[in-house]
Automatic annotation (TrEMBL):
PROSITE patterns given in the database record: GNAT
InterPro entries: Acyl_CoA_acyltransferase, GNAT_dom
Name of this chain's protein: N-acetyltransferase domain-containing protein
Domain (N-acetyltransferase): residue spans on this chain: 150-290
Pfam families tied to this protein: Acetyltransf_1
Highest taxon in the source lineage: Bacteria
Lineage: Bacteria, Pseudomonadati, Pseudomonadota, Gammaproteobacteria, Enterobacterales
Gene Ontology MF: a single term: acyltransferase activity, transferring groups other than amino-acyl groups
The organism of origin for this protein: [Pantoea] beijingensis
Amino acid sequence: MKIKKSDRFYNTVQGTAVAHAKPIALAHRRVCYDLNQASPAAVAAELGMSAVDLPEYCSTGIREVDIMLFNRCMSLGQNAMATREQIETIAEWMDQHANPNWAFALGSDFHHANIDLLLNECGFTLRSGGIAHYWRDAVPVKHEVAPEITIIEAETTQESQLFSEVVGECFQMDRRMDARSANLIGRKNWHCFIAHYNGEPAGTGAMMNTGEVAWLGFGGTLPQFRGKGIQQALLKARINKACELDISGITIESAYNAGEEQPFPVSGRNIQRLGFSLSHVSENYSRNKT
């Protein structure tokens, strides 16, 4: 994939122009929208799931889940200057369809020069924390893991149930969302993996082929198996699976805690050990509390 000059974003963390931020942002919004669509209709109705995907932005909401990651407007201002009217229209939709804990998620690019001021004028403020986005070229890695670890790609109904249960436990999510995780097995463009340690389920990881970029997510390890190389093994399996596809790069995410001595969690440092480089950080703007 050739990166056009207009696709170059400004990196708020490193202060350098980066060439991969726009394809990463596009992959991220495609994943978020597809995850919203993957839920069974009954579960989507019960949890209040909604999504809208337009050329200018993508918004997703889950009214019954108080997690900002699932209640955001993404990509506003990436393709054109954002307007006050857009912000007000999005805010009205989010107020109706999302949990009150929702935000505008902004990755820095040239169009964002004044969007922070515009959001401030509309009553939205930068919040602490965000998402760190990483990039890696699609090059295989040596898949050497401890003999106690085995990785399988989930395919059967039983494996889909196991995958969803481990995901739910790893991330401590509303267990009604297990059905969404289970539905990813066999879904177009998705590959889901389960790690076992000495035969016991230990962790999960997933990959979505978004077109030109493979997105890696759902990387979780059960508490009793942490520190045993589970995520490294799952990362290697997904990287090599992605390299079998006709893609140019691989992206993955971790939390980012601005202002802290260690802004990147252990997962972020593990990610970089496997050849990923930090591309940029997307930050959250939410409504001022009254």
